[in-house]
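Reopening this one. Same input as before:
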Amino acid sequence: MSWSLCPEAACTVMTRPVAPDPATAATRAVLERLLRDDAPYGDLTTEALEIGALPAVMTFHARDAMVAALVEDAAAIVEIAGGVVDWRARSGDRLQPGAPILSARGPAGALLKGWKVAQTLIEIWSGVATSASEIVTAARSVSPDIAVACTRKHTPGVKDFAVAAVKAGGATMHRMGLSETILVFPEHLAFLEGVDGAALVAAARTSSPEKKLVIEVKSIETGVAAAVAGFEIIQAEKFSPRELAELVSAVSALDRRPLIAAAGGVNTANAADYARSGADFLVTSAPYAAAPRDVAVKIAPQA
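Same output, byte for byte:
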C-alpha cells in the first residue's frame, strides 16, 4: 500500500531551505541579554544615518574550513533583533571556505543590530568545535570507537555554549560540574591520609551507589593501587603515552579492569599516540584554546 500526504497536483516545491531543528544552546533570555549588552540603548550609528527602516539582506559564509557551531543561536539572535533567517547550514556541519551558513532579510536596523553578536558566536565556538573534531579524528584514526571528552575548563558562565560546541565537534563532556560525578583528586586525598582505598570506595558506593567512582592518579603505582581498591575509572594525569600503556598493561590482569582515561596535555598532535597506548577515552581542554574560525558577513540593500 502506498499513500501520500497530499494529492500530486496539490503538492508544491519548497524553494526556501528547510530550517533544521531550531533548538538553541542558550535560552531566549540569555540571547536577548547578549543582544542588549551590545546595543543597550539602540544602534547609535544606524539611527544617526537614518537607514534603519530600509530593506536589507545579510549573508554569512565560512571564510575558513570549519565545523560549524552555534548556528542556531546566531540565527535566533538575528530573529530577536527583527530579521527573518534562511538556514544554509547547521551546527555540526563541516564547511569549506565560501560555504553559506545563513542568510537573513529585514530592516537594515535589525540586521545591523544582530550582525556582530551572531557572527562572533559562530566564529568563537566553531573554533572550539573544529578543534574538538580534529582531536576526535586523530584519536579514531587508530582506535575507531574511542571517545574524546572535554573538561569544564572553559570560560566560566558560558557552559551552554561550550557544551553545544563540543557536541558539534563530535566529542562529549567529561563532567559538567561538581554535582554530577565523583572524581577524587589528590587534593581530596590530602585530607584522608591513612584511609584505606577499599574503605574509601565502599563508603562512596554506599553514599552514591548509582555513580561510577573516578580517581585521578599521577603515577603507575598509584593507578594500580586505585584499580585494586575498586575505582572504576582511572584518570591518568599527564602520563606519557608510554607510561599510559604500562598502566593499561598493569591493570589488564585484574578481575575487574577499570577504564583508563588519558588526561592532561591531550591535543590534536598526540591524540593518536594516546589512543594507540590503550586508553579507553581521552580527556582534554585543548579545544577551548582554539583560534576562532572566520565568518564573512555581507550586508546590503535588498534589491
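So the earlier flakiness isn't reproducible anymore. For the record, Residues 25 and 161 are 6 Å apart (CA to CA).
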